[in-house]
Sequence to fold (221 residues):
Amino acid sequence: MMDIEEKRRLVRGLLREVGRGFAEPHGFGVTNNPASLFQLLCLSVLLRRSTDYHIAVAAARQLRDRGWATAQKLAASPYGQRAEALAQAGHRRTAKQLADVLGELGGVVADRYSGDLRRLRTEAHHDPGRERELLKRLPGVDDQVVDLFFREAQVVWSEVGPFADRRALTASRKLGLARTVEDLAELAKSEESERFAWLVGALAQVDLDRRHEEIRALSRQ
Fold:
């Protein structure tokens, strides 16, 4: 069983080896602007509907790199081109369904919130429970999608944190760090407000890659 210093050493090593969160190392910076938040939501939808996170990330990049980085642009994109982009990323059997869902998602966010999820946050009065409720009213968004979105968005939506999704907590327990969100947050205390969000995203990445044993060795370095 690790002592507190070993756990802190493991946290430092984890952030150094794996990266700052999940989204940022994969090329999706988390900032509080309409395009970034919408791309994060699309990435969350794709992760929820993919058995391989590499495919989800590739699909999100395809959408962004084709110029559909905002809700308005994604909603206006031709359905056939959306489906083609998703199929090229690896969603061959589900490309058409996902193209429908994401197009509808873009349209609803554009119509209801002028493409800006910060308006949803304002409507919810910065209350995480209400934010979850409003997000779940969007096409393709369920509790698991919200969990993925909150895990990364807590960097800029501070009221959400400290938040860890099931996968991040699973990795935390397997690594011997903490069993609860509260204990993990205590372990990650730092002057950097983003540190906890980076940690839970990195933990999720470790669980996805099944790197638990490799990362556990960092506590001894």
